Amino acid sequence: MGRPRRMNPFTMPAMQKTRIAVLHFSHETVTFLERDTELDDFVFDGSPCRDEVLLGYDAKGYLGGFVQCAREYTEVELVGIESPLFPKTGIGSGWVTHEAYEHFLGIMLDDLAQRGPFDGVYMALHGAMAVRGVERPEADIARRVRQVVGEAAILAATFDPHGNEDEQFLQAADLAFCVKYFPHYDMHLQGERAARTMVRAIRGEYRPATMTVKVPILTPTVLQWTGGNSPWLQLVHRALTWEAREPDAYVNVFFGFPWADVPDVGMTIQTLTNGKPELAQRIARDMAQAAWRARHDLLNAARIEPIERGVASARQETANGNAPVVLADYSDRSGAATWTLQELVRTGARRTLIATVADYELVSRLKQRGARAGDAFDEQVGGRVDDSAGEPVRIQGRILGHGQSQDGTNSRSDWYTVAFGDGNVLVVSAYLMQITEREMLEQMGMTLADFDIFVIKSRAHFRRGFDDSGFARTIILVEPPHPFLGTIHLDALPYRNVKVENYFPYGEPDFNP
């Protein structure tokens, strides 16, 4: 039911300052990857940061929305707490080490204590961070922030829909706002909502009454696209309908993130109302029941081809005049997988752009020796990091260019572009890069008209720049021939903290919210 509200002794008259702390601690953790996310991964040029640097980060995202809206209130003073940004490994690394977590959380808590008191704290989180030795990191962050700032302060957070959350977060915090769409078009909007509702709560105009319901459905993220006629979009529409019907009601639908082996994995419904606990319960039950009724449709929301068939289909669609074709290699969680590249080389691909294959060691060697445009290239690329990545593939060609770019997670990676074969280009990156916009390829020096087939490592975010834009005439989701990490075959994963038989479709749990 959420936390009972207490009067805030720091609330000031309108002409005096309302002080709100802003912090950021976010990661989408694939715990089945062998490479941990370490302290140094959060440390790079610009991270950690504080004050106006933090407040100016990610202007189109959660933070940007929160800061823009909060600054519309002249009495609000925002304080950027020293925080790490998204790690340079992006979403291609495993467990966050306990050392890294405690180090950065400790810095944030110390900064909060030294610069308080605060009327509120806004936390830009994710929901799928997984930390060694900490079962529910976001709830732990909220509890420990609460211990520093006191019971009267308003705590609010924004989340990614791939978060794994349960009732514990809102037992420590007051407000939560989760993105609804995948791709995540409404990040800025949810930041705005968090700011507006937090200010109202600080003023005593919004008294949070919340409800959280776990729904025992476990789904791979590739199925969770909210475009077209997706049943996931229908669930989002139901949430939006409740928000339209009931003033001051907010509905969060966490789709869940199955690649994190954590006890609160899976779907969650959260509802927030203004002092109406019965309404919060009613909406949460309705949403949970709707999700459960749709569970079979939710698990059949995408058509996926084996890589061999998908590559053949892409060639045929090109021959039929249905290019550009996007081959979305959705299952690659490390970025190093070579299964699609292997098949393209085997079948003599032409006019194909592969973006990207991650190979940190290769990129480091190329940088060390000063490789540049025009140099010959004869290297084994990718693979090796685990079974799901496959074997390295030998590529012979020439280097077109190199640079550093930011991907869809705001992580930066060095890269080299390599021309090979009949009009093909391979982008080799240090880390997994999720290409979400065509402009990202153009900034690497690519002329998109030179290619018929685009191979992207992505589940749904690529649709932002390649589908919803109308660019691609054909889209084919592909997967390797084995139930590797990243594929839809979740029952093949070596879970230790999750019993998949307690979730649909791997069991038939008795669920009646």
TrEMBL record:
Belongs to the peptidase M81 family. Residues 335-479 form the Microcystin LR degradation protein MlrC C-terminal domain. Binds 1 zinc ion per subunit. GO terms for biological process: proteolysis. Keywords: Hydrolase, Metal-binding, Metalloprotease, Protease. Residues 19-314 form the Microcystin LR degradation protein MlrC N-terminal domain. This is Microcystinase C. Pfam families: DUF1485 (PF07364), MlrC_C (PF07171). Involved in peptidolytic degradation of cyclic heptapeptide hepatotoxin microcystin (MC). Its cofactor is Zn(2+). GO terms for molecular function: metal ion binding; metallopeptidase activity. The keyword DNA-binding does not apply. InterPro entries: MlrC, MlrC_C, MlrC_N. It comes from Bordetella parapertussis (strain 12822 / ATCC BAA-587 / NCTC 13253).
